[in-house]
Design goal:
Uridine Diphospho-n-acetylenolpyruvylglucosamine Reductase, domain 2; 3 domains; five-stranded antiparallel beta sheet; 12 helices; 36% helix; binds flavin-adenine dinucleotide
């Protein structure tokens, strides 16, 4: 393991001050499950790690009015154990259940997952589905940026040097809405996503779909919702045939956006099935 300095920050202000210290090239450390693995594999590009894993302001999970706030240093285990998130962000809780094993989930944070910006990151589809905003702070102040704009590509973000994600927020879903996360991976055990999807939906009193969100993971060059699929669902009565049609549309949109490559045939079949199944579960056509 290469040598570098380590320092723990106790507040967001202190973390930004440490990151901006001109004497060191510094990087943030949260759970370390990405950055320390990367540091073992390749020459490191930093001289100091600034640990934000215990910054109290970055550990909150709370409701403020009609919005839910999740600190960037919240771990997957803390998400799983949160009553608030179980009630209002089932897709994020389900995604957290699939991350690594217990040892990884106890350390890995939502902020680290999004800042690392791997295409297979399990945190991305739920946050996109929930229409989440990332709250970012740096030496020049604070800004709010939608997660779909923060993650700009594979391992790329629009974070500026010395900026950190402090927390995420998203509007509470409409009353009666349900959300679901599903992923397929290379093995039938905790695994990185080969393809994933987060969906959310709610029915009107007449039993028609009045709210629908579909956010596939991995298959697009950058995170986005499938608005074409959502439009196809709105106003319809949910049944298995409609969910299958939505799955086929998602596969078609994927090919239009991502183009054809070696795995397109597999991806299209897997995405079609995954979206259809997630929607059947969202609208309680199956468990
Ligand atoms: C065995 C194993 C299994 C895994 N399984 C999965 C899986 O199933 N699904 C999945 O999605 N991932 C998985 N991962 C990857 C990893 O656990 C996640 O991406 C995790 O969420 C990263 O969070 P962290 O807190 O450990 O990040 P760290 O490694 O601490 O940091 C990652 C990056 O984000 C930056 N960073 C950290 N916090 C912030 C912040 N608040 N603001 C800005 N930048 C920040 C760091 O500087 C670094 O560049 C796995 C990793 C391992 C080792």
């Amino acid at each position: 393991m290469p040598m570098f300095d380590y320092v723990r920050a106790h507040s967001i202000k202190e973390a930004i001050g440490l990151l901006s210290d001109p004497r060191y090239v510094s990087r943030l450390l949260a759970g370390g499950t990405d950055i320390l693995v990367q540091a073992r594999r390749a020459p490191i590009m930093f001289q100091r790690l600034v640990d934000v894993s215990r910054v109290p302001e970055m550990k909150v999970i709370e409701r403020r009015g009609d919005e839910i706030y999740i600190g960037a240093a919240v771990t997957y285990t803390e998400i799983l154990e949160s009553e608030l998130l179980n009630a209002h962000a089932a897709c994020l809780v389900e995604a957290s259940r699939t991350v690594g094993g217990p040892a990884i989930a106890n350390a890995a944070t939502l902020g680290g997952n999004i800042a690392n910006a791997a295409r297979c990151a399990d945190g991305i589809p739920p946050l996109v589905c929930l229409d989440a905003t990332a709250h970012v702070r740096g030496p020049d102040g604070a800004r709010a940026v939608p997660v779909v704009e923060l993650v700009s590509g594979q391992r790329q973000t629009t974070l500026q040097p010395n900026e950190l994600i402090t927390h995420f927020s998203f509007p509470v879903l409409p009353s009666g809405a349900r959300s679901v996360f599903l992923k397929v991976g290379p093995r039938n055990a905790p695994t990185l996503a080969r393809i994933s999807v987060a969906t959310a939906g709610a029915l009107s009193q007449e039993g028609r779909i009045q709210f629908a969100r579909v956010a596939p993971g991995v298959v697009f060059p950058r995170p986005q919702r499938c608005i074409e699929v959502e439009n196809l669902l709105i106003g319809e009565r949910p049944d298995a045939a409609l969910c299958a049609k939505a799955g086929a549309k998602a596969a078609q949109v994927m090919i239009e956006i991502a183009g054809q490559h070696w795995s397109t045939n597999y991806d299209a079949i897997a995405l079609r099935g995954l979206v259809a199944r997630a929607l059947r579960r969202t609208f309680q056509l199956e468990e």
